[in-house]
Design brief:
With 440 residues, the chain is an all-alpha fold. It has one domain: Up-down Bundle (Cytochrome C Oxidase, Chain A), CATH 1.20.210.10. The protein contains 13 helices and 2 strands. A two-stranded antiparallel ribbon has the order 1-2. A hairpin with a 5-residue loop joins strand 1 and strand 2. Helix 4 runs antiparallel to helix 5. It is globular. The two termini are 13 Å apart.
């Protein structure tokens, strides 16, 4: 009977690994990265390119965020409801045709193109909403089935936000109503479309990215809180639209919007506190500091936003928007890509481990750069520091950290050398002959 050399076990690390469960998301992730490059270009150019930095916000929310929310809500929806299959391959093509139409129509003033693009994206999101609803209703007793319900609410928030954005873009909103409708549009898309999806996903996927477990009972508390938080956000969006009404109605609407956002804040704290504690005590992994800071920024943004709406101090809305987009949503996306990169890029166990270890090198420095840059950019957008050159420095820090992370994840992995004959399975090394060569 032949004995196998123990060293031969290493050959298993060179065998191809089965495909990642996230493989179907790879095309949308690639598109999101391409849009993210566009965001960086528009931020660096300032007002030189058409649409300026305001278009950069829409490139992020429509190009990056929408592609990833649609992809991962579909993936996790099918996972938690145990529903087989994937969405049709042509749905992302339709979605991105609408996204590009909006991004071209906004800076060029082509209202027909803007309206057509917004309608196309909205129809695509509505179709995704229908799929999620069907999954939830046909699933049997799934523990995390409530997450799909929150995804549905997030899709509904997008549809509301898209309608509001379309009427703003085509110029049919009267001047006195413009600020209220704009605030409602921002809240529906940032806190609803992005925020609700993120909060529901954090409950189970946040600890997973940090290779730890969810706290016992945290999912049940999150389910109850997010149900009320989503309702509160819906009320807040509708109330913000009514703030354009002069007199008592507008004043009452501000108060109602603040109460609705307070319910959302409570939900954010209920989700982020146990996830943050679990991630904080976890072992060192590349996504860990990013996930931890998302759990810090998100409740803070929600709470301060409630205060801004309650006091009608809209001057601070731009600074909060920076933190919500860069510190919360973009950082959550970066953490997800860091977690998925070894699975999507590595074809073997060895390659995946190499990518994972690469991403762990300098992870604290990159996380500090991202969050320091977010803080500086937000400070530069705040009314008290508008004259300080903080914005450019802050965006540079964030861009540097993101670029280094992407290059680290995408850098090719050198194929390992083939094993020698002595280390191939089925060969037994019994000693060395007179010439010094191994005898088999």
């Amino acid at each position: 009977m032949q004995e196998r050399d123990p060293a031969a076990g290493d050959t298993g690390h060179r065998r191809p690994r089965p495909g990642s469960p996230f493989a179907a998301a790879a095309p949308s992730i690639t598109l999101a990265v391409a849009y993210a490059v566009g965001v960086g270009v528009w931020l660096a150019a300032g007002d030189v390119l058409p649409g300026g930095r305001w278009l950069a916000v829409h490139i992020f929310t429509l190009g990056v965020l929408t592609n990833l929310v649609l992809t991962f809500s579909e993936h996790f929806g099918r996972t938690v409801t145990r529903t087989s299959g994937e969405r049709r391959a042509w749905w992302p093509l339709i979605t991105n045709a609408g996204v590009l139409a909006v991004l071209v129509g906004l800076p060029t003033g082509q209202r027909w193109l803007l309206g057509a693009g917004a309608t196309t994206v909205t129809v695509s999101v509505f179709a995704a909403y229908r799929r999620l609803r069907r999954m939830r209703r046909t699933s049997l007793g799934a523990r995390f089935g409530w997450i799909v319900r929150i995804y549905e609410r997030a899709h509904g928030a997008f549809i509301h936000g898209a309608v509001l954005g379309a009427v703003l873009g085509i110029g049919v909103v009267p001047g006195t109503w413009y600020s209220g409708v704009r605030a409602a549009h921002l809240h529906a898309n940032v806190l609803g479309w992005g925020g609700l999806t993120l909060l529901a996903t954090l409950v189970f996927f946040g600890p997973t990215m940090a290779r730890t477990r969810i706290e016992p009972g945290a999912d049940g508390r999150a389910a109850r809180a997010l149900r009320h938080g989503a309702t509160g956000l819906t009320i807040a969006v509708l109330a913000l639209v009514l703030t354009g009404w002069d007199g008592v109605v507008g004043t009452v609407a501000h108060g109602v919007a603040a109460v609705g956002l307070l319910a959302y804040t409570v939900a954010a704290v209920t989700v982020c506190l146990p996830v943050g504690r679990a991630v904080y005590t976890a072992k060192r992994t590349a996504p860990r500091p990013l996930v931890l800071m998302v759990c810090v920024w998100l409740p803070l943004v929600a709470g301060l936003d409630t205060l801004v709406v309650a006091t009608t101090n809209w001057r601070w809305l731009d600074a909060l928007g920076v933190v919500a987009l860069a510190g919360v949503l973009a950082q959550a996306i970066l953490a997800t890509l860091v977690y998925l990169a070894p699975m999507l890029r590595g074809g073997t166990t060895t390659a995946r481990e190499v990518i994972r270890r690469r991403l762990e090198v300098g992870l604290t420095t990159r996380a500090v750069l991202v969050n320091l840059g977010v803080a500086m950019t937000a400070a530069g957008a705040a009314p008290v520091a508008a004259d300080l050159p903080l914005t450019a420095v802050g965006w540079s820090a964030v861009a540097t950290a993101v670029l280094v992370t992407l290059l680290t994840a995408l850098w090719p992995v050198r194929a390992p050398d083939p094993p020698s004959v002595a280390h191939r399975p089925g060969h037994r090394v019994v000693g060395r002959g007179p010439t010094g060569r191994a005898a088999e």
